[in-house]
Amino acid sequence: xxxxxxxxxxxAPPSPLTVDPSxxxxxxxxxxxxxxxxxxxxxxxxxxxxxxxxxxxxxxxEVPIETVYTxxxxxxxxxxxxxxxxxxxxxxxxxxxxxxxxxxxxxFNDTHDVAAGRSRVTREFFAREGGAQ
Amino acid sequence: xxxIDVTPRPRVEAGANPTMLTGTWVNTNPRxxxxxxxxxxxxxxxxxxxxxxxxxxxxVDWGETAAAxxxxxxxxxxxxxxVASYDFGTTRVALQGFLRQGVLVILAxxxxxxxxxxxxxxxxxxxxxx
Lengths: 133, 130
Known about the structure:
The complex is a heterodimer. Helix content of chain A is 0%, strand content 49%. By secondary structure, chain A is mainly β. Chain A has one domain (21-128): Lipocalin. By secondary structure, chain B is mainly beta. Chain B has one domain (11-126). Chain B is built from no helices and 9 strands. Chain B has strands at 11-12, 23-27, 35-43, 46-55, 58-69, 79-87, 91-100, 103-112, 121-129. In chain B, strands 2-3-4-5-6-7-8-9 form an 8-stranded antiparallel β-barrel.
């Protein structure tokens, strides 16, 4: 099966090796000041990501970012990423996208034990510390 | 292991209402280069979706896959959130979907596992039910 994208004739598709993830680097803080599942995230070379959560899970630790995505099939602009954390009793699959300078992080949090807590989804917005680049 | 590999197992979480995702949903952009439509149906305790993707002068049937549907408060900004995935061998697509004010929003994260040089990318598209 051939899936999209189709490239225009003569287009050179951007290689994954040329996609520069450094646009994601830095510390990103949750824009919501009340309830937070993820308080802040820090992304650096690797690329790797560290998450600091709310009171119940203050440090998720650091994992490699599994996949960096561009904003489109013929774009080299970094537009999102995926990462997976194993935290206390949950597998948390993160899918993040950039939108107007904000990072939107959706976390699908699957509980390992339904008696301990339900699976849930969170969608939170993050602004880069120090402002947009 | 990647996030696509660990796509949550298909099921419908307690409290979720997958019938809100059934029927045929059509892309608001008729010139989409990604997903043209999604069909959802209930199969026992599961929601199964079928995606039709854009192709040259036609559509491509991606086939049917089962989704994991979650229950979340509407004030989270997403309703009936779900994930599903397709594995086409050298191309894998993880789908993230949710309803917002009756509009179905689907984010597709496409990952290439071949040597074609194509960059992995995501797209976000909007669908209305017909």
